[in-house]
C-alpha cells in the first residue's frame, strides 16, 4: 500500500470527525463553503470529498437512498450520462448510535460528466462519484459523504492547469491511496462527538 499519511479531521467545529489523508486540504481555508457542508480537496489530483448535512428525506426508502441522492446530485450539477455502477445494501453503523438507535448506511458509486464551477458543458470531465448516505433518523438528518475522482479530464476544463488533459496518473503510481480507499476510510471513521449539533 502506498504511504499516504492520514489524520483525524474535525468537522463542523469538532462536533463530527473523520479520518482523511493529509493531502486533502480544508477548502474553507481557500474559499467560502456553505454552512451545511465541509469540503476537502487534493488540488494536485483534482480529487475532492464533501460532507453535507441535510434534512432527512422521509419519503426516500433506506435501501434506495444512496442511489436517490446520486441521481439528485447529477440533476443539480447538470451532469450528462449519469449511471450507477454499484450500490450496497443497507448497513448498520453501530458506532453511530443516538439513544440506542444505530444509523442506517447505504453507499453507491456512479459515473457522470460534470463541468467545473461555472464552466459550460463543452468543458465537462468524466468523474467517478462515491456516495454514502448515513441516515441519523433520531435527529432527522441525512449525512452525505461524496467523493469525486476524475477519470478523464477535458482539454477545455480548468483542471488541466493542475492535472493535465486526458487520464490522470493512477493513485498507486503517484504514491497515494486510491480515492475508493479514501472514501471507505472516511465513511468507516465518521463519528459524532457532539450530538447537540443536530438540536438546532
UniProtKB/TrEMBL annotation:
Transmembrane segments: none annotated. InterPro entries: Mog1 (IPR007681), Mog1/PsbP_a/b/a-sand (IPR016123). SUPFAM superfamilies: Mog1p/PsbP-like. GO terms for molecular function: guanyl-nucleotide exchange factor activity; small GTPase binding. One of its GO terms (biological process) is protein import into nucleus. One of its GO terms (cellular component) is nucleus. Pfam families: Mog1. Keywords: Protein transport, Transport. It comes from the Eukaryota. The keyword Transport applies. The keyword Protein transport applies. Belongs to the MOG1 family. This is Ran guanine nucleotide release factor.
